[in-house]
Amino acid sequence: MSTTNDLREWLVRHYHDYVVADEPIIGTYGLIWFLSKPDSIPGAFAVKTLAPEALRNAKSFHDIDYLRREFRLWLALPSHRNVVPALGFDTAHLPSGHQGEFIRLPIMRMPQMLGSLQDWVDDSSVAEEDRLIALAQSFNGLIHLYKNGFEGHGDLKPSNILYADLRDRFELDDRSTWPSVAHPWQVRIADLGWADAWIDLGFTNKALRQYLAPERLEGSFIPFKSDVFSMGIVVAELLQQHHPASNLKKAISSEGKWNRCVLTGDWDIEGINSNRLKRMIQKCLSFDHADRPTA
């Protein structure tokens, strides 16, 4: 049976002009590999696929179906500056361990981004203006999904919102507006794996509990309003560098306690200076989805 190392060797052969990273980044159910070639166009890109070992595990056997579904949604989505685009599709043919039989793994090429907003949650050096610009771009990306047939992203969290440095691609000027040398970050929504999963797969709660709208636990919800709840958490987390739940460990220890946290509004957003932003975050985190704003 093929291994992740066999997959890497296939990538080395198939993209023979590029250097393939030694190890992939492990995602929710897939792998992200980085490939680079200085002084070329593109100088770097990433590919998303699945670990071959997952096909041996009964619990992960459906991951390849989830990945193909994600790729179909992704390829049909028109390009937008605030959503990570699908650049092209390949199929890796790997030995299955049975003579003459192969495993066919779907592989999607995409731009290599510099990191995710989780980096900024953990880094106090990023200016507040850049955090606000990043959040505005994130909402722009969500609106693009909604305008193109998506009910909801379904898995919003800082690690699924990526950023790139436009200074690596363009000559930027010294203006105080975006994009500029002072504010060079391009932010893009990524990972459509659980987008509209409630329609196609029957999943309503496939996301980290600390970003999950409480009504998703019940299975009856308005998807874009649940996205706004998740983004309320992201906004608070990015602006004050910690999750807004007053006692996060306790709040996420069970579905009931998370539901109670949201119902009682047990939030700590005192690290945010702007009263206007506090009011917006509180509306996003309302237990009643009808009280939440739109993207």
Main features:
10 helices, alpha+beta, six-stranded antiparallel sheet, 9 strands, 295 residues
Mind sketching the topology for me?
Elements lengths: L3 H11 L4 E2 L4 E2 L4 E6 L7 E6 L13 H14 L11 E8 L6 E10 L3 E2 H5 L6 H20 L13 E5 L19 E5 L7 H4 L14 H4 L4 H18 L7 H4 L3 H10 L10 H10 L11
Antiparallel strand pairs: 1-3, 2-3, 3-4, 4-6, 5-6, 7-8, 8-9
Helix pairs in contact: 4-7, 7-10
What does this structure look like?
By secondary structure, the protein is an alpha+beta fold. Helices cover 34% and strands 16% of the residues. The protein has helices at residues 4-14, 63-76, 117-121, 128-147, 197-200, 215-218, 223-240, 248-251, 255-264, 275-284, and strands spanning 19-20, 25-26, 31-36, 44-49, 88-95, 102-111, 115-116, 161-165, 185-189. The radius of gyration is 20 Å and the shape is globular.
